[in-house]
Known about the structure:
- The chain is α/β, with parallel strands linked by helices.
- It has one domain: NAD(P)-binding Rossmann-like Domain (Rossmann fold, 3-Layer(aba) Sandwich).
- It is built from eleven helices and 13 strands.
- It has helices at 10-21, 38-47, 61-70, 85-90, 92-112, 146-163, 198-206, 234-247, 266-277, 301-307, 315-328; strands at residues 2-5, 26-30, 52-55, 75-78, 117-123, 169-175, 177-179, 213-216, 228-229, 231-233, 252-258, 264-265, 283-286.
- It has a seven-stranded parallel beta sheet with strand order 3-2-1-4-5-6-11, sandwiched between helices. The chain has a two-stranded parallel ribbon with strand order 7-10. It has a two-stranded parallel sheet with strand order 8-13.
- The two termini are 15 Å apart.
- The structure holds nicotinamide-adenine-dinucleotide and UDP-4-deoxy-4-formamido-beta-L-arabinopyranose.
- Nicotinamide-adenine-dinucleotide binds at residues 5-6, 8-12, 30-35, 57-59, 79-83, 98, 102, 121, 123, 175, 178.
Amino acid sequence: MILVTGGAGYIGSHVCIALLDAGLDVVAVDNLSNSNKASLDRVQSICGRSLVFRLADIRDEETICEILRAFGVTAVIHLAGLKAVGDSNVRPMTYYENNVLGTMRLVSAMKRANVKTLVFSSSATVYGIPRYLPLDEKHPLDPTNPYGRTKLVIEEMLKDLCRSNDGWRICNLRYFNPVGAHESGLVGEDPLGVPSNLLPFVAQVAIGRREKLRIWGNDYDTPDGTGIRDFIHVIDLASGHLSALRQLRQPGLLTVNLGTGNGYSVLDVVRTFEAASGRSIPYEIGERRAGDVAVCYADPTFAKDALGWTSTRSLQQMCEDHWRWQLQNPNGYHGSKLPTVRER
Ligand code: NAD
Ligand code: WQD
């Protein structure tokens, strides 16, 4: 049985699909602070299998310990966390409390229940401003915002845990820019309020929920002047977690980029999304967004060497799948009619 923290969230729901499809049993824990339980109802209908959902907070060590013991959990995939960069500048302590303290309590519960295999959701944001490209795992770590620093603190904490020679098997996965949705269009990203990330904003413009996209700067030193990122399909990302789990056979620490190695500009995304949706995406050019870098993409070599994992899905497929989800669920999970997932 695998425990997925943050299992009802965007990436978590896709990780649950990957695990169920691989024949593994799943208990998903989420406090639903940024998600909807309907995502897990849909995960079950996609996979034709059930999972267990527990409404719980990772900071509640007793409850997490009980869950680990009650379900005979053997490994944890830890995605629960707050992730909004701008918000983390405004409420830094909330981020440290939720992400860092939450992970400390989770690890404590795991130690008590003698579960010592952990895959952690880190982020390419730990690299900060790229000093060279592509970004490999040896690149210096210097995050530029509190959110990124919580990820770095957690990575360092987990590194120390592995150094303690207490049998821990840990993998930090540094995600680049996850986008897209399950090909069924049943699960996808459902941001609260105004999306700050590019793809959800573009999709909401295409569906008519927002009038136009504002492109944050077209004067970068890139071929078309707009920022370049390494967008990765969320299904490829999810399969990386399965590869990581399978690789954690010996005690030790692995830290691995999950990216495609390809960079696409904001305008590439706009054009590809227009082609995928058949809708036009009106946009205007705004000032650069504070904290943005011109170009960021991964060196995915180590992921292939260490995990035997590579991404396979194109930007076109990312946009097509993201669009299918948006078209079938113009208001996200709001109004979901599917049956309620079992709660124990
Ligand atoms: P998400 O907000 O959709 O999922 C996170 C889930 O964790 C949500 O369902 C939320 O309700 C839950 N949660 C938050 N705090 C919790 C707590 N204390 N106890 C229990 N549940 C809690 O976000 P996501 O995009 O699916 O991201 C998942 C993880 O991946 C996060 O840790 C995020 O920092 C990391 N990450 C995301 C991205 C990205 O661009 N989406 C990039 C890099 C890393
Ligand atoms: C991508 C590009 C924007 C919105 C963020 C976090 C990072 C990670 C992934 C968690 C940039 C441009 C965007 C818009 C735009 N999350 N853009 N108009 O900034 O690379 O990374 O999400 O770990 O930590 O910082 O992703 O999707 O916000 O932006 O022009 O309305 O799209 O300027 O060039 P980013 P993004």
